[in-house]
């Protein structure tokens, strides 16, 4: 995740991803809205990693064919940690009268409380590392639109408690297809 996004070969990979989306749509594995949304994501992707997210819930054989994992890259050294401290339990990610879209690198109980007031907020956990079996997420949504994207294969089998408070807000939680 701390690596530079890969853009080499992006146009060719984009065509391959769009071809898979067309095939899935033709086979009625995607409905109209999901197909249109993913097609737009594929078209707007700025890196290979973003294209991988478009097919996150496709069968492994399709994902592995389009995005093979290179076993030569595996090292015996541990991956470097993130260069920021664990937030204080009373800290907040707070958006007031604005728009915020962020991809969080780690999904754990050390996350701060997340608050949006008269705002639009998107929290993307699709590439997050998951370190704990049971996770608490605190969301406050006051006169705001908040989207939480939990479509992450690392969340499979984990227990997530989402505590929501707010007033006249809209909260959308995106989950993987079963």
Which short descriptors sum up this protein?
178 residues; 4-stranded parallel sheet; 4 helices; 10 strands
Descriptive account of the structure:
This protein has 178 residues and is α/β, with parallel strands linked by helices. The chain has 4 helices and 10 strands. It has helices spanning 10-26, 32-44, 48-54, 60-66; strands at residues 92-96, 99-103, 106-107, 113-117, 120-124, 129-130, 134-142, 145-149, 159-167, 170-174. Residues 71-79 and 81-89 have low confidence and may be disordered. It folds into 2 domains: 10-68, no CATH class; 92-174, no CATH class. Helix 1 packs antiparallel against helix 2. The chain has a 4-stranded parallel β-sheet with strand order 1-4-7-9, with no helix packed on it. Strands 2-5-8-10 form a 4-stranded parallel β-sheet, with no helix packed on it. It is 25% helix and 29% strand. The two termini are 26 Å apart. The chain is globular.
Topology, element by element:
Layout: H1 10-26, H2 32-44, H3 48-54, H4 60-66, E1 92-96, E2 99-103, E3 106-107, E4 113-117, E5 120-124, E6 129-130, E7 134-142, E8 145-149, E9 159-167, E10 170-174
Structural class designation: alpha/beta
N-to-C CA distance: 26 Å
- Number of DSSP strands? 10
What is the ordering of alpha helices and beta strands?
HHHHEEEEEEEEEE
Mean pLDDT: 79
């Amino acid at each position: 995740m701390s690596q530079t996004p890969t853009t080499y070969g992006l146009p060719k990979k984009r065509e391959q991803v769009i071809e898979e989306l067309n095939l899935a749509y033709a086979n009625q594995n995607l409905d109209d809205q999901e197909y249109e949304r993913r097609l737009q994501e594929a078209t707007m992707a700025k890196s290979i990693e973003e294209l991988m997210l478009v097919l996150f819930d496709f069968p492994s054989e399709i994902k592995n064919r389009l995005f093979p994992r290179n076993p030569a890259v595996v090292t015996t050294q541990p991956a470097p940690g993130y260069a920021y401290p664990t937030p204080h339990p009373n800290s907040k990610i707070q958006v007031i009268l604005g728009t915020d879209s962020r991809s969080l690198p780690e999904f754990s109980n050390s996350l701060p409380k997340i608050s949006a007031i008269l705002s639009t907020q998107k929290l993307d956990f699709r590439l997050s590392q998951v370190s704990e079996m049971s996770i608490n997420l605190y969301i406050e949504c006051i006169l705001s639109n908040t989207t939480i994207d939990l479509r992450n294969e690392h969340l499979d089998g984990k227990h997530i408690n989402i505590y929501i408070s707010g007033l006249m807000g809209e909260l959308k939680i995106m989950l993987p297809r079963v």
